[in-house]
C-alpha cells in the first residue's frame, strides 16, 4: 500500500507496544516529525470517516460545501435527485480547484481556470473547444468520488469511495448512541456561529487534550470547569471501537453566570469529529492536520429552534474560552517537546484513559500501515 517501513522511519514497534501498555505516550518525536506526519495522513486520514460539515450547508439541490479532509480537497454537493454526492475538488483538466467556497443552488460546478463544467452528479458537462479533440471522451472525465454519509445534523466523508457506510463501520458507536438517547434531528437546530481555530500544535496533542478532563479543573476553572462538574465520580466515559463518549453533570450553582444544562452528552469519532449536545445548545467540530505543528479545528455552534439568543451567547462564550485555553496549552507542549530530550510522556491511567484509547487507535492504524 505504501513505502513506509518501521526501519526507514526508525520505529521500534515492540518498544512502542510496550510503552503504550505501560501508560507511556507515543514517542514524542511523533508530534513533530514530518515523516511520521506523512505516515499518519496515509494510514489514518486517508482511511477513516471524518467530519465534513453541518447538514444545513448542503440542504437543497445545488448546495455545495468544500473542506480539506486529510490531504484531500473535497466538495460535497446535493444533486437534483436530493442525494449527497462527494467528490475530490480537483478538476479533471489540469487539477485546479473546481469549487472555491461554499455555494448555494449551483446549476453546475464550474472550474474558473479554463471553464470546464460538471453536472451535480460529477459528470463532465462541457469542456470548451474539446469537441473536435480526437479521443476526448467526456464520459471518462467526471469528478473522482469520495464516500459521503450522514449522522443527525452532520455530513461525514471518507476519502475512499468504496468505504463501508458509517453505521456498518461503527456499530458499537451507534448502539451506544441509541442506548444513551442521542438522537439529533437536523430540523430542530439552527446555525448560530462558526469558528475556525488554527492551532500551532500537533493534532495528537490537540486530541489528547480534547479526550481527557484531568486538566479541566485547572485550565478551565473559569470556563468548562465552572459550567460542569468535572468530578470523575460524576462523569460517565464510554470507550469503544473508534470512538469515545462522555456524560457530564452541570453544576447546580454557578459562580460566574446562571447557565446550567440538564444533560451533556458527547461523541468523538476518531480522528477529529466531535458532537457535543447539552439541552438546547449543540456544536459539532472537525479537525484537519495541516502540518506537523499546525492543526485546524473548525467548530459549528448551533441552537435549538426558538432558544433565547442570550443563552446561546453565554454557552458560546464558555466553549470558545474553553477551546482557546486548550489551544494555548497544546501550543506550548508542542514547542517544548520538539527539543526531543523527553522521549515519552507518562499518562495517569485512572484519569487519562480516553487519551490513551485515542493513542492506541493512532498506533493501531500506523502499525497496520507499517506491517502492510
Ligand atoms: S484546470 Fe479546471 S478547467 Fe483547466
Ligand atoms: Fe480542555
Would you mind describing this structure in some detail?
It is a single chain. This protein has 372 residues and is of the alpha+beta class. The protein folds into two domains: 50-163, 3-layer Sandwich (Rieske Iron-sulfur Protein), CATH 2.102.10; 170-356, Alpha-Beta Complex (Naphthalene 1,2-dioxygenase Alpha Subunit, Chain A, domain 1). The chain has helices at residues 6-9, 13-21, 34-45, 166-169, 171-179, 203-211, 216-219, 224-227, 309-337, 349-371; strands at 50-54, 64-69, 72-78, 84-88, 109-110, 117-118, 124-126, 145-151, 154-158, 189-199, 228-229, 236-240, 243-247, 249-250, 265-269, 273-278, 281-291, 294-304. The chain has a seven-stranded antiparallel β-sheet, with helices on both faces. Helix 6 (203-211) packs across helix 9 (309-337). The longest helix has 29 residues, at 309-337. The mean pLDDT is 95. FE2/S2 (inorganic) cluster binds next to loops. Fe (ii) ion (FE2) is lined by residues 209, 215, 219-220, 322, 326.
Amino acid at each position: 500500500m505504501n513505502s513506509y517501513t518501521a526501519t526507514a522511519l526508525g520505529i521500534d514497534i515492540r518498544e512502542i507496544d510496550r510503552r503504550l501498555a505501560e501508560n507511556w505516550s507515543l514517542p514524542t518525536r511523533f508530534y513533530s516529525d514530518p515523516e511520521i506526519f506523512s505516515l499518519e495522513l496515509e494510514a489514518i486520514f486517508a482511511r477513516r470517516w471524518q467530519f465534513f460539515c453541518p447538514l444545513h450547508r448542503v440542504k437543497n439541490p445545488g448546495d455545495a460545501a468544500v473542506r480539506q479532509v486529510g490531504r484531500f480537497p473535497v466538495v460535497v454537493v446535493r444533486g437534483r435527485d436530493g442525494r449527497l454526492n462527494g467528490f475530490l475538488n480537483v478538476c479533471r483538466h489540469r487539477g485546479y480547484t473546481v469549487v472555491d467556497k461554499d455555494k448555494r443552488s449551483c446549476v453546475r460546478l464550474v472550474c474558473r481556470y479554463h471553464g470546464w463544467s460538471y453536472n451535480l452528479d460529477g459528470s463532465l458537462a462541457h469542456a470548451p473547444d474539446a469537441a473536435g479533440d480526437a479521443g476526448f471522451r467526456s464520459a471518462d472525465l467526471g469528478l473522482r468520488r469520495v464516500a459521503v454519509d450522514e449522522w443527525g445534523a452532520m455530513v461525514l466523508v471518507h476519502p475512499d469511495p468504496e468505504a463501508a457506510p458509517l453505521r456498518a463501520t461503527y456499530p458499537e458507536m451507534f448502539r451506544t448512541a441509541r442506548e444513551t438517547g442521542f438522537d439529533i434531528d437536523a430540523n430542530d437546530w439552527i446555525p448560530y456561529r462558526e469558528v475556525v481555530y488554527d492551532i500551532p500544535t500537533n493534532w495528537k496533542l490537540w486530541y489528547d487534550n480534547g479526550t481527557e478532563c484531568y486538566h479541566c479543573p485547572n485550565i478551565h476553572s473559569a470556563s468548562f470547569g465552572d459550567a460542569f462538574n468535572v468530578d470523575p465520580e460524576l462523569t460517565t466515559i464510554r470507550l469503544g471501537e473508534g470512538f469515545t463518549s462522555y456524560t457530564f453533570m452541570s453544576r447546580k450553582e454557578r459562580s460566574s453566570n446562571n447557565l446550567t444544562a440538564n444533560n451533556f452528552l458527547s461523541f468523538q469519532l476518531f480522528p477529529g469529529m466531535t458532537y457535543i449536545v447539552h439541552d438546547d445548545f449543540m456544536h459539532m467540530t472537525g479537525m484537519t492536520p495541516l502540518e506537523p505543528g499546525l492543526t485546524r479545528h473548525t467548530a459549528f455552534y448551533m441552537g435549538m429552534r426558538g432558544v433565547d439568543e442570550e443563552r446561546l451567547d453565554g454557552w458560546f462564550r464558555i466553549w470558545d474560552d474553553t477551546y482557546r485555553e486548550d489551544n494555548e496549552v497544546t501550543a506550548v507542549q508542542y514547542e517544548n517537546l520538539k527539543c526531543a530530550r523527553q522521549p515519552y510522556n507518562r499518562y495517569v491511567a485512572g484519569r487519562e484513559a480516553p487519551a490513551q484509547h485515542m493513542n492506541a487507535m493512532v498506533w493501531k492504524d500506523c502499525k497496520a500501515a507499517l506491517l502492510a
